[in-house]
Amino acid sequence: MIELLEDPAYRHILINHLPVTGLAVAWLVLVVAVPLRHRPTFLVALALVAVMAGSAYAVIAAGEEAYPFVYDTLDGDGRAWLDHHTYLADTWAPVIYANAVLALLAIGLGSWRAKWLMGAALGVGLVTLGGFGAAAVISESGGKIKHADFRLSDPPVHERSGRSREPGRRR
């Protein structure tokens, strides 16, 4: 079992659901906290947003490490979908990272001025919808890499993915 965790592709597959399902659950907790106006519930929801959005960093790091090894195992369309998945992750990850930072700022702001917690949490809730959408778009394209039956269209073409086929090197 431990040796499986050394494989970056396995780690990526193991944790890639956290930003999507985790942000959905965190957003639901935020929605529940609004009518309750319960400070501890807001803080738990914001902490969940921060952790789940922050988990995207580990997911992307594992994906970048796995890229050259996975690329060599794929057919032409699989490679094109991998490049598209990488392009989307590079494009939309900043939204997810910003979501994590804003959630942490909201925790700090709400701890400093309790009256501001509701407004800060509502703002984070809106950004979390964007972070969830970004994570969903990235993961949807990832599902098409090795599953030809999920490919209902041709992969979009990108000039370059920004990844090298050699481990640890960017183009």
Quickly list its features.
6 helices; single chain; disordered C terminus; 171 residues
Q: Can you tell me about this structure?
A:
By secondary structure, the chain is an all-alpha fold. It has one domain. The chain is 74% helix and 0% strand. It has helices spanning 2-5, 8-15, 18-36, 39-71, 76-112, 117-142. Helix 3 (18-36) runs antiparallel to helix 6 (117-142). The radius of gyration is 18 Å and the shape is elongated. The two termini are 33 Å apart.
Q: What would you say about this model in short?
A:
This protein is an all-alpha fold. 74% of the residues lie in helices and 0% in strands.
Q: What's the end-to-end separation, in Å?
A: 33 Å
Detail the poorly predicted runs. 167-171
Please, what is the average pLDDT?
Answer: 88
Approximately how much beta-strand content do the residues carry? under 5%
Helix content: over 70%
General form: elongated
Query: What order do the SSEs take from the amino end to the carboxyl end, as H and E?
Result: HHHHHH
Number of helices: 6
Radius of gyration: 18 Å
Number of domains: 1
- The total count of strands amounts to 0
Biggest sheet features: none
Question: What class would the helix/strand composition place it in?
Answer: mainly alpha
